[in-house]
Design the sequence.
């Protein structure tokens, strides 16, 4: 569950930074903006977030697959039986 939360957080952070137009640079003549519209520092940050995104997704699905496999290999069915009384009778007698 933690890996899934980290993955979703990384996706949201990546989208937040990538879609923030106030962080854009528009000219390659500006220092630190060799490939507009995203600055070099933001591009490196987005690449690092991508690594976190893919590693956490891989770990999430790996743990999920391990859990499914483990449950299939070690599953022991629970057998429940119902016990009913046989020939149970209540006998009432009156003697005078």
Sequence:
């Amino acid at each position: 569950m933690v890996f899934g939360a980290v993955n979703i957080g990384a996706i949201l952070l990546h989208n937040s930074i990538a879609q923030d137009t106030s962080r854009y640079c528009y000219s390659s003549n500006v220092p630190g903006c060799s490939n507009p519209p995203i600055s070099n520092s933001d591009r490196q940050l987005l690449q690092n977030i991508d690594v976190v995104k893919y590693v956490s997704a891989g770990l999430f699905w790996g743990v999920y697959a391990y859990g499914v496999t483990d449950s299939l290999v070690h599953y022991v069915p629970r057998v429940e039986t119902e016990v009913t009384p046989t020939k149970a009778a209540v006998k009432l007698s009156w003697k005078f």
Summary: The helical segments are 2-18, 40-73. The radius of gyration is 32 Å. The mean pLDDT is 90.
